Amino acid sequence: MDNSICQVYEDEIQLLEEEIKLLTEKYEDSQQESTFFSDEEILMSINSLQKEFQGESKGNESPSDLKARLGSLETDLSFLMKFTGIQFRSHSKKTVEKTGSRTVQKHRLSGNCHSLSFQLEFQLLEMQNKESVSAVITDLSILMEPGEDSDVSKFVSSTEEHGNLLTFFRSLSSYAEWYEHRRCTFLHFK
């Protein structure tokens, strides 16, 4: 009896230690992300937000206006999802490296476009100069449903090579729409 109670406590302790470890990692990531900005930039952002908040509290935007704006944004998002057929199910981002002017983040996306599902994994390299910020996609990996035709696998390989996400999403949207039409047509004749 004593061994089983001890085991339960040890298991609980182990779960709590793992949770502490995960929370520590999240905290360190958030600290790294916040150190990317200078103190001046942070103060400017805080002042800007305070001015916006003070403007809103004076009655510039009422709760009903905010609800209407939210409804408008939801309508726009719904339209874009219907128009492109692309719906994202999950997204995760982790900062891999951060120096003064260089940031590397690892992104993972999963979603579906009409009836085709996809998963993307890539690294985003951001370099900041005095005048501008440039971003480059590296290590792009695309996973599509198995069983797609060879043209899709060639296109995916080419996209991974060039790291062009815009072309991928445009082409995926068009291909998935016609894939769905073909599938419905073949079901009609069966």
Summarize this structure briefly:
It comes from Dromas ardeola. By secondary structure, this protein is an alpha+beta fold.
Poorly predicted residue ranges? none
- The average pLDDT is 80
Strand content bin? 25-35%
Oligomer: single chain
Shape: extended
Helix content: 55-70%
Q: How many helix segments?
A: 5
Number of strands: 4
Reading the helices and strands in chain order gives HHHEEEEHH
Describe the main β-sheet briefly: 4 strands, antiparallel
Radius of gyration: 24 Å
Q: How do the strands of the widest beta sheet line up side by side? A: 1-2-3-4
Number of domains: 2
Pfam family, one: CENP-P
Keywords: Coiled coil
Protein name: CENPP protein
Coiled coil: 6-33
Structure explained in plain terms:
Residues 6-33 form a coiled coil. InterPro entries: CENP-P (IPR027801). One of its GO terms (cellular component) is nucleus. The chain is α+β, with helices and mostly antiparallel strands and 190 residues long. The chain folds into two domains: 1-51; 85-189, no CATH class. Helices cover 59% and strands 26% of the residues. It is built from five helices and four strands, in the order αααββββαα. It has a four-stranded antiparallel beta sheet with strand order 1-2-3-4. The radius of gyration is 24 Å and the shape is extended. The model has no long low-confidence stretch (mean pLDDT 80).
